[in-house]
Amino acid sequence: MISDRVADALVIRTALSAEAETIGELHFRARSTYYPDGAPQDDIDWTEAWRGSIERPDVQVLCAVAHGRIVGIASFRTPEGASAETVKLFQFHVDPGRWRAGIGTALHTACVEEWQADGRRTAVLDVHVDNRRAQAFYARQGWVPDPEQPLGDGDHHLCLRYAVDGE
To answer: 0.85 exceeded by the pTM?
Structure first.
């Protein structure tokens, strides 16, 4: 449940290219929480990766802003080879310092509203197997394990599915 204080101050809008560095930093902070030894060091420039996503015409990037500060992000698009009725939630993060304040629920609701407006019927996502907090969040929102992509031995991501159209 979103608190009245957060609801009054929260704005969800399309991200801007100029915000890529802030979004990349939030992404890294959130991602670091579900790896046992912290986020793996990789050669990805998250600022440039987010700028690229924000600027892609086929990607939607939403951000949740509270009191002028980005506190949540979500990115989604039609996955390669899928029908236009399917959308993939590629990234969904809330600033760890703001967990349990209703920001994720509000951001998820905004995503679903966009998907419904775009005529999507199904949403899919991959969640890291060690990210139990996110798995519980998605379950509360109505996401279920994708029967077409069961978790296999050695898999690091669990595939989830959401019925956008409620069926």
So the answer is: yes
